[in-house]
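Reopening this ticket.

The earlier resolution said the output was attached, but the attachment link was broken on my side. Pasting everything inline this time so it's all in one place.
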Amino acid sequence: MIRVSLLIAMLAALPPAQAEIHVRVDPASGVTVLSNVAPKPGLTTTPFSPSVPLRGATAASFPRVDPHTQQERDIDRRAILENELVSEQKALTAAREHGADDDARHRHIANLAALRRELRSIR
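Inline output:
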C-alpha cells in the first residue's frame, strides 16, 4: 500500500510533457509532415497548437438513412445473425459428439451467448 501511495505521489509531481510540433507541406509530394524537429532554414512551417480544435464529425455531418432502408438492413442483419446462431449451435453439438476439448466447447458457448446478445440488441 505504501509503494502504491509513493508511486501515485511521484507521478502526480511529474510535470506534463511538452513538445513543439512543426507542420509543413512537402512541396515535392504535397504530403503534410508533422515533426518535433524544427525544419532546415528556408522551409516554412506552421506551429501546431493542440488548443486549436481539430475537425471532427458531428451528428449533423453523419450520413442519414431513411427509416425504411434501416428497417431492411435490420431485417438482413437479424437473418444473418440467426443463421450464424444455427451454425454455431451445430458446431457445438458436433464438438460435444466428437469429444472436443473444453476450450473448443467453451468457445462455441461464448459465441452463442454473443450472438444472442446481438440479436437482443436489434430494434
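Reporter confirms the inline version is readable. The radius of gyration is 27 Å. The chain has two domains: 18-48, 65-121.
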